[in-house]
Amino acid sequence: MTTRKSKKARPVHNKTFVLDTNVLLHNAESIEAFGDNNVVIPMAVIEELDSFKSHNDELGRNARHVIRRIDALRTEGNLRDGVPMPNGGMLQIRSAAPPSADDKLTKDIPDNRILRLAYELHNEDKDIIFVSKDINARLKADALGLQAVDFEKEKINFDDLYSGYSEVDVPLATINGFFKERIYKHSKLGGYPNEFIRMSERTNRARKKKTALARVIEPGTLTHLSTELEEVWNVRARNREQRMALELLMDPNVQIVTLVGQAGTGKTLLALAAALHCTLKHHRYDRILVSRPIIPMGKDIGYLPGPKEEKLIHWMQPIFDNLTYLMHDAVTPSVGKKKGKVTARDRIDALFDNSTVVLEALTYIRGRSIPGQYVIVDEAQNLTPHEVKTIVSRAGENTKMVLTGDPYQIDNPYLDASSNGLTYATERLKAQTIHGHMTLKTSERSALAAIAAEYL
Prior knowledge:
Blueprint: E1 16-19, H1 21-26, E2 38-42, H2 43-52, H3 58-73, E3 83-84, E4 90-94, H4 110-123, E5 128-131, H5 135-143, E6 147-149, E7 165-170, H6 172-180, E8 183-185, E9 196-201, E10 211-218, E11 221-224, E12 231-232, E13 235-236, H7 240-250, E14 256-261, H8 267-281, E15 287-292, H9 308-315, H10 317-326, H11 344-353, E16 357-361, E17 373-377, H12 385-392, E18 400-405, H13 421-429, E19 435-440, H14 447-455
Parallel strand pairs: 1-2, 1-5, 2-4, 5-6, 7-9, 14-18, 14-19, 15-16, 15-17, 17-18
Antiparallel strand pairs: 3-4, 8-11, 9-10, 10-11, 12-13
Helix pairs in contact: 2-3, 2-4, 7-8, 8-10, 12-13
């Protein structure tokens, strides 16, 4: 005769997190991101996930992943009462009661059903925290007296974002020593690999201070900037940040570069110039692959009429604008011997005809392996951290990745300057020797563009 094992006492959880649908769609692993607390998923969220699961995009993939994960946890018990998770937390699926006559959320829509459940749990004297990436949902929750927060796991402090550049005052002997050596060691200089340091003489004298610009090989080891990068593909840096960015873009040992800056600072132009120079002149890469998010939230370009190439033209026009500028006086092998006047458009067409430059939608990058290419992902601030991880993990041997974007211009409604994939990658990779970053601050497009970036 076998005796029935007694169930283990369920641990007491101090907090209960009620998750909105957008949290699960933003990060498929978010269910287990709240430690050993209680996680409640409203029935309305399950219904919304069901409507997304057939989508062939990042949202659809996340929805399917979450549904499969919940189904796997279901074997541990009853979802209504709660099932244990590996991290020590408990997962429940609950449904809200129908709205009463005096209900503050009378309209029967998913958002209100989610908030109604959170409010009911709050009235049960539970320590309820409503988690949503939707600002309006958080405002409504706050109006109901609920504690409402954004999903913080993949957020960084944008105000303290790594800039890739610092300035320090040093004794004159340090600067003189730096100029005497190709590799200069100083235990107190350099925080991260590929960081740039402007050393200024520490003096009280009226004369002009002596300065030096160094690049960090590793903390405590500095080197000089290359003397061969004053001009790249007929483009000269117009300020110090652009010059430092070119140093990173042209170095094959720096396999991933992040460039952050407002409109007109030269992010895309510099990346394309470096890509053309490395591919056509130095022959380091087989081709240049340029991509950018097609539509916020990753919708497929299949919604537009025509074949893929025709659809991409509309979304890649900024790339064509930069290529037109770069190819104005350039010579490419395919058109160098062409008789008569050769236009910039002829040169650009030659690059596409021989597949030296390839434009690709991010939709088609997932699942690929990309070896031997110079990859530029423009407008990366509209990508989630998971999407950036997916793209960068496609890199094969001898591939360089460049992510560019402006965190102040985000079209994705569930991302901001602190939670987008570009700034997240910048902060998380800053200590890696194969990563380099530069924040471009000065608009060089035109006086009008500079004024617009600063005042509008």
